[in-house]
Design a protein that fits this description.
This protein is an alpha/beta fold. The protein is 34% helix and 12% strand. Among the domains are: 58-192 and 225-248, Rossmann fold, CATH 3.40.50.720; 196-222 and 251-310 and 324-338, NAD(P)-binding Rossmann-like Domain (Rossmann fold, 3-Layer(aba) Sandwich), CATH 3.40.50.720. Helix 2 links the parallel strand 1 and strand 2. Helix 4 runs parallel beside helix 5, helix 8 (256-267) packs across helix 12 (326-332) and helix 9 packs antiparallel against helix 10. It is globular, with a radius of gyration of 21 Å. The structure holds NADP nicotinamide-adenine-dinucleotide phosphate.
Length: 373
């Protein structure tokens, strides 16, 4: 994966924070709070260089994932020691050489102890079943002063985010655990990731340039994973984000068919969008996507038809730079749409070459053995 461009840090005046997305505290990029020891120092600041030696590491879970990887890079760029958690040892090879790598598994809470020793903050990405979440959050609160949690906008009053959604239930459960643990926290709530486009459409684009998909008119505001990671990194080392609750979106509302058309435009290829009914989509993804994910997406897309996507200014408010557009994201990942496994015939989810779910393990609905409440 290409290293993300470096976001300028502390190169201008403190960014303005939108009170609607930042419930507490002003942003203090200079000394003044508990987080001073994690701030990114100016290299000519002797006092800070002394402080740097005392900067406790940040444990980054999901460090080999889309967002965690960016967080690791930006922490390192900011001079903050990053400790990357991996649970598959082979994944460690994909991390930068100058990052400390620890192994641990969210489903085995005690396996996290070594990585948690001496940390100041934790970036929590939960992609495991929920059973061990209470024990893990308790451990994080024992070792760290701050947890930044990658959640979703399940509290946002827009129909897209208010449909039945097992991921949202899991995220809400973990937020409650974090609040009850009494640890300082920041909740990051990105909407739909721009990179979902790769999981969803790249194999069809490579195969025959025909994307068969439901709800072409459903509008979302895809957010660039690099912007999500940049906001998360800021909240991990910059003062003033305790209690922050940030809904992150991309800058524009785009229909799904329009997003496919932008991809074709950037690639210089004609890509056809063929509308599927919800039932056709269910049968196309049968066997390759978890049914709860399919139903969750269909409900969200269906509910948003006829409305523009929900958009916030939070990326700009926190980073002081505009969120990247979907077109920009596609341009920066164009090769990924052209190279890679090309199915020999039309993508068939049953043969494993069809659209891939970007969600990984999906919790079962309440009442199932996986569910904690
Ligand atoms: N896709 C979206 O549009 C969207 C929108 C809002 C929120 N989100 C949320 O974003 C999160 C996913 O973030 P992402 O896309 O950056 O992740 P990702 O790319 O799917 O990567 C998953 C990460 O989780 C790690 N992991 C998996 N199982 C683990 C375990 N048992 N113990 C420890 N680590 C484990 C993996 O580590 P290894 O490489 O070592 O296996 C990997 O680093 C999810 O909570 C999702 O709900 C997604």
């Amino acid at each position: 994966m290409a290293r993300p461009p470096t976001t300028p840090l502390f190169s201008g005046p403190p960014p303005r924070i939108n009170p609607s997305t930042t419930p507490r505290n002003d942003l203090h990029p200079l000394p003044g709070g508990w987080h001073d020891s994690l701030r990114a120092p100016a290299t000519d600041d002797v006092e800070v260089l002394i402080t740097r030696t005392r900067v406790p590491p940040v444990l980054v879970t999901g460090a080999t994932g889309r967002v965690g990887r960016v967080v690791v890079d930006l922490l390192i760029d900011a001079g903050v020691p990053a400790r990357a958690l991996t649970h598959r040892s082979e994944a460690a090879a994909t991390l930068p050489a100058n990052v400390e790598v620890v192994t641990g598994d969210l489903t085995v809470p005690e396996s996290l102890d070594a990585g948690l020793r001496g940390v100041g903050a934790v970036f929590l990405v939960w992609t495991a079943p929920p059973t061990t979440a209470p024990a893990v959050v308790e451990r994080l609160a024992t070792y760290a002063r701050r947890v930044v949690f990658l959640s979703s906008p399940h509290q946002t009053p827009h129909p897209f985010f208010q449909q039945p959604n097992p991921m949202a239930v899991l995220h809400a459960d973990i937020e409650r655990l974090i609040a009850a643990a009494g640890v300082e926290s920041t909740i990051i709530r990105p909407g739909v990731f721009a990179s979902n486009a790769l999981f969803w459409w790249a194999s069809a684009i490579r195969a025959d340039g025909v994307v068969r998909w439901p709800y072409g008119a459903a509008e979302t505001a895809p957010v660039d994973d690099r912007d999500v990671g940049a906001v998360a990194a800021r909240t991990l080392y910059q003062d003033g984000h305790a209690g922050g609750d940030y809904v992150l979106t991309g800058p524009e509302s785009l229909g799904q068919a329009e997003q496919v058309s932008i991809i074709g435009d950037v690639l210089g290829r004609r890509i056809k969008f063929e509308e599927l009914s919800p039932d056709e989509f269910r049968s196309e993804t049968e066997g390759s996507w978890p049914r709860p994910v399919v139903d969750m997406l269909l409900a969200a897309w269906g509910a948003t038809i006829g409305r523009p996507a929900f958009i916030t200014s939070t990326v700009f408010d926190i980073l002081g730079s505009a969120p990247r557009s979907f077109r920009q994201w596609v341009a920066d990942h164009a090769t990924a749409f052209m190279e890679g496994p090309t199915p020999s015939s039309r993508p068939s989810p049953r043969s494993g070459s069809g659209p891939r779910s970007p969600w990984g393990p999906v919790p079962r609905p309440p009442g199932s053995p996986w569910h904690s409440s």
